[in-house]
Design brief:
Radius of gyration of chain A: 14 Å
CATH architecture of chain A: Alpha-Beta Complex
Strand content of chain B: 15-25%
Number of domains of chain A: 1
Order of helices and strands of chain B: EEEHHEHEHEEHEHEEHEEHHEEHEEHEH
Helix content of chain A: 40-55%
Largest interface: A-B, 19 and 18 residues
CATH architecture of the largest domain in chain B: 3-Layer(aba) Sandwich
CATH class of the largest domain in chain B: Alpha Beta
Oligomer: heterodimer
Strand order of the largest sheet of chain A: 1-2-3
Number of strands of chain A: 3
Number of helices of chain B: 12
Largest sheet of chain B: 7 strands, mixed
Largest sheet of chain A: 3 strands, antiparallel
CATH superfamily of the largest domain in chain B: Type I PLP-dependent aspartate aminotransferase-like (Major domain)
Structural class of chain A: alpha+beta
Order of helices and strands of chain A: HEEEHHHH
Chain lengths: 127, 382
Amino acid sequence: MDIYRQIILDHYKHPRNFGHLDKPDAKTEEGNVTCGDRIVIELKVESRKSEVIDDIRFSGEGCAISIASASMLTEKVKGMKIDGVMKLSIHDIMHMLGSTLTPSRTKCAMLPLEVLHKAIWTITIRK
Amino acid sequence: MQNDFPLLRRKINGKPIVYLDSTATSLKPQAVIDKENEYYTKYTANIFRGIYTTSEEATKEYEDVRGKVAKFINAPKSEEIVFTRNTSESINLVASCLRPKEIVASIMEHHSNFVPWQQIGKLKVWDGKEDLDNIVTRTTEVFAITAVSNVLGTILPIKEIVRKVKTINPQCLVLVDAAQAAPHMKIDVADWGADFVAFSSHKMLGPTGVGVLWGKYELLSAMKPYQYGGEMITEVRIEKSVFKEVPHKFEAGTPHIAGVIGFGAAIDYLTKIGMDNIRKHEEEIVAYAMKELKKITGLTIYGPEKRAGIIAFTMKSAHAHDIAQVLNEDNICIRAGNHCAMPLHLSLGIAATARASFYIYTTKADVDALIKGLEKVNKLFL
C-alpha cells in the first residue's frame, strides 16, 4: 500500500519529538474537526535573536498521516532558521512524506505545518 | 436485486465495489435513474405553467409523487407534503418560520437537527436517558428528535417520546428527523403524533437534491412562507402579495422536478419490496456484522445491540481515517469522522469513529469483505 510506506508507519508508531517542553516560547494547538485530528506544537527559539528553532515537541492525536507528518516535520525543522520554516509549503510536506495523497488526506498531512506556522507567528508578533 | 443497482457492477482496479455507506447516501436502482431521465427525454417542461401537453404531463408526474410520499408515511393529506432540497432544508424551514425561543434536542442529533435550533434560540440538550420531565418545560417551544441515530443506530420510541413531551407541554411542537428511519422501516406519522417530520430522497434510493417536510396541515397553513419568488404566489401588487396555499407556498421557484419524479420511482421500488422485508433483511445483516466485528482484536462498537443497519466503531490499532483508507484499497466504502454528529462524539469522548452501514442491497459477502479488510488494518498498524 503506497500511502503507508514503512517510514510513515515507523513515525506513526514511534513518533519523534513527541511530548512537551519546559517553558516553551510558543505553544499552539489546532484541530481538524471533521476527522478529529488535534496537534499541539511547542517551540523554543534561540534566545538572543529568535531566529533559529532550538527545540520542538508535538503532542495530540490523529491519523497515521497527520502524526507521521508532525513527527517528520519536527525532525526537519529542529535547528532551522525561522525564515526558512515559514517558507515551507505543501510541496515540502508532500516531498517529505513521499506518498501520493488524495485531497482529503492532504488536509491531515498539512495540519502540523499549519500549527507550526501559527506557533511561529505568536513569537514574531510578540517581538 | 444487486443487478438493479448499476454501481454494483462497476469495478475499480479490477475489483468490485463494496458499498457500506448507505447512511450517507444510498445507491440508486436503474428504475429511479430511468424515471429521472424520462423527465429530461420525454416531458421536459416547467410545471404549473404550460397549457401544453408536456407541461401537463410533468405537472401530473410531480404532483403524483406528493401523493405517493403521503401514502408512504401515512400522512392524512398529500397537501401536507412539502418538497425541499434535503432534510437540512426541511428543518431550517421549520426553524426559520417558527423562530422558537426555547428548544430541546437530543445529544444524538445530526448537525442538521441541532445547529438550526442552536442558531435561532436557546437550545437545551437531552442526553437520551434523563427523565424528560426534568428537561422539557412549559416554556419549551420545540422538541427536536431523531428517529434513528446516524452513529449509534439507536431506534428511538418516537410515539412514546412524543406522548411524553405533549403530556408535559401540549403546546410544545415536536419535529422528528426521519432521515435514517424513512429508508429503513415503516413509518407512520399519524401514529407518531409529531408535528413535523423531515427526511431526504437520496438516502432512500432516490435522487439527491430532494427532501421532504411533512407537517400538520393547520400548522403549515399558519406559517409564513420560508422563501419568496416564483410559483408560490397567486397575486403580486406593488405594495403586497398573496401567496398560494400549502404546500406550494413553501416551494418557491422551479423545484427539482426530475428529482421529485425520480423519487416517486424510489418509493415505488421500496413499496414493492415492502418496508417490513427491508427491516428484516437489515436486522439479519446487522446481527451478522455485529457477531463478526466482535471477533476483531481491539475493536469497540458504539451503541445498543438491537439497532438499525448502522455500526460505528473504533480500533485500538488505527485512527478511523486510516481504517477507511486501508479499506479503500479493496473498494470497501465506509465513512470515517464524526458523521455530522460532533456533540455526540464529544459526549462519548472520542474524536472520530469508522462507520459501516447497510441497506437492501447489502449481502453477508459485503460484511465478510469488511471483516477481511479490518484484519488487514490490524496487520498493518498493530
